Amino acid sequence: MSPFPMPGEAARDLVEVGRLLYEKGLIASTEGNISLRLAPDRFLVTPTGRSKGRLAAADLITLTATGRKIAGAGEASSEIPLHLAIYRARPDIAAIVHAHPPTATGFAVAGVPLAECVLPEVLLSVGSVPLTPYGTPSTEELCEKVLPTARGHDAFLLKNHGAVSLGRTLREAHHRMEMVESFAKVLFTAKLLGRVEPLDPEEVDRLLRMRPAPPGEGCGNCATCTHGETGSLDESLLNEVVRRVEERLRSK
Ligand SMILES: [Zn+2]
To answer: Ligand 1 centre and the CA of 78: distance in Å?
Structure first.
């Protein structure tokens, strides 16, 4: 059986995920974009300037890996070059969802990553959710800022912008986006209550080893434990980890 979805089925799934993202409030207006790798050189993507909650299969655009349009009446979303760059960096994934979930985006605006190791389900399904540095939407600059993180994580926040989730299937990418937002709500509540109690570091290790993680993924920039393979970290993340560890040691 082909590892890639049939185009008709893929289009139906993509339309359905757009509707669910919209109905759940993870995107509003014409926000967000979704893509699917149909074959090594064929991608099905959402159009620009349309509500992703009200698409039909005929509205979708088919592109090559370099972004050349093969089929579809409209224009691909302006964020699709970012999707294509991520597909090049991650041959193991076949779907990408970009949304602006309000609570997770609140963390991205506050400059707070969702990288605390507190919920086993999140560690198992998504891993840690770091924050990438700001880049102007729809630019090459954003791609450059995001790729080091996308190589080692299945979901991450875009500073002052939103969230991106990746999956081996569209369903997986979509579920990860839902989980990012629900995790943001849980973490927000815990922070309001004034206490965030991390999982035991050995438990974090065990959970991260249980999931089919991208190469090199650790818990990355977790504020509460020092796990993770530093080889997957970029320097700014590493500095942040060091800064937070030093801060904690000083406060003891
Ligand atoms: Zn966006």
So the answer is: 9
